Amino acid sequence: MNETAIETATAPEPELTAGPQDANVPEMHEYVNRPPPPLLVVISGPSGVGKDVTLNRMRELGYRFHYAVTATTRPRRPNEVEGRDYHFKTLAEFEEMRRTGKLLEWAEVYGHYYGIPKSEVTEYLARGEDVVVKPDVQGAATIKRQVPNAVFIFLAPPSFGEQAQRLRLRKTEDPEALALRLQIAGEEMRALPMFDYVVVNHTGKLNETVNEIVCILTAEKCRVRPRQITIHERMSDHGR
User: Fold this and answer.
1) What digits encode the pLDDT tens for the residues 87-121?
2) All structural domains of the chain
């Protein structure tokens, strides 16, 4: 090895010029190193489109979120667990929650009352956790009036022919009831422009559906100006 090669190999590296430190760059603290903002995520769509299986698969694939458990006056079924499936309330207890504005939205369905307790949303957002609610389209509209900065995702079928086939395979309705459900689903589609995003749930492609939703939520957490989740109190009764 010649002398030039030796000098090159042993020459000390030049000292780096000191640059700015994170403490001197406020954008690092305000935007880059801040914790990801918690989101209120409203996933809705026509009946039978696959909201439940989508949320279950999100859990299975490890996406962390709190599902807001609904309060109801309906009697508890043998396989249901208080606080996991529903918060079971007496009619008087539910009426007190409604009267004092403790429900984000509520509705009467087949003679029983259902509602989303605000505590199921506010307590978990305060902990920095994403909260997911799964109302019907009318309930989503009610939430939109109170929490306009929530993330609203409409889960849609690829076609109404496929939607009809899915409902037929459930075998839970007679032909007349099925026709009515499809008619209502068509009316619910008219609410789609109210939402921020639409995700098509193709048959046999559930993982793709979940991936699209997770991509939406990941992008939301990268916003320079994140959504500020505030519940606007307009009235004490938020029924439909």
Assistant:
1) 999 999 999 999 999 999 999 887 899 999 999 99
2) 37-65+130-227 (3.40.50.300), 69-128 (3.30.63.10)
